[in-house]
Automatic annotation (TrEMBL):
Pfam families: STAS
Organism, scientific name: Prauserella flavalba
Residue ranges of domain STAS in the record: 2-113
Protein name in the entry: Anti-sigma factor antagonist
Protein family membership: Belongs to the anti-sigma-factor antagonist family.
GO MF annotation list: anti-sigma factor antagonist activity
Lineage: Bacteria, Bacillati, Actinomycetota, Actinomycetes, Pseudonocardiales
Amino acid sequence: MLHVADEHHGSTVVVRVEGEVDLSTGPRLEQHLQHAVAGIRPPEPLVVDLSGVAFIGSCGLALLLRLHEAAENKGSSLHIVAGQRAVTRPVEVVGLTDTLRLYATVEDALAHAH
């Protein structure tokens, strides 16, 4: 099961994700996040809050990389809230900590938005 919702913090969009990101939920999440990336206004970042994610598979990590590239190509950035091991550990294991911008809280991600 996956729940996705958008919140607006000033001009920054925060997409909150709860549940598991795997092969069955990944396509729906990707569609939602690609739409969110299309709507951002550079230099504002897109903040994706994964603090409610209990599992993220390799398809979810690949999705985060694609979103990172899409945001950068648009002149923006992707800020990922990943304050728990279910997300940080897979990112560390595959060596993406230097590529993806991870933050412990939404507040931290928003503070680095400008």
